[in-house]
Design goal:
With 261 residues, the protein is mostly helical. It contains twelve helices and no strands. α2 runs antiparallel to α3.
Amino acid sequence: MVKHYDAYADIPWDEPEFAVDQDDPRWELPDADPLGASDWYLNQPAGVRSRIGLYRYASAAKLGGEFENVRKRGLLEHAFRLENHDPTFRYIYHEVVEAAHHGMMFQEFVNRSGLPIDYVQREILRRDRELPSIIEIMMRHRATASPRHHVTEEARHLSFARHYLKQEVPKLGFVRRTVISIAAPIILGIMAQMMLKASAGVEREFHVPDDVMRASYHRIPQIAEATRDGVKQVRKLCREIGLLNPVSTLLWRALGMYAKD
């Protein structure tokens, strides 16, 4: 049976189990987040720890919604230029629909959090810790539940993008390929850091000391490794389709995202 994701029909937002309680200890940051592993964080009262964690989840959801917004705009612009009967048209619109539901899901969670989810999601799912029900259903597909989880859908979207780029990039001229090879690491570098690091809002809202933020997120092996791992599949794809040239490789290295794989 084919299932179609619906952000409001598939997630029981109003059931008590899915209520967002700011004092729920399950919101506390895992040690996968360097701030969550810091002595400063661990020494905070339980309620503060849970609120910081909830703020992190809400910030990631808001950022995810903004990424989905940009992606939908790009897909629709691309679809507008396709010829009739182009086989990619239908898939693009399916992806736009799913991206729209992801955006609605993220925004609904942000609204319910009462406060101003890719690589980070996979790392959290690998940890053996209980998650709040609302995050669990947003991030993971349960065998008995109807919604496909976000990570799985993104993997399918990436599969389509991988095959499409392998087919189309070789057709581009030298200048366009060069521009893409330079733009890719810059965009990825910005996005990776935005997802991996706590936002400035967390720092302001909870008065996190500057030295704690620096120690947690700036030039530490854990963040560097997470950055490289988080863009691994895209990096491999860029190598396969010839976008890792001598100039772009320097950018990948400078932004801390390069590895020989």
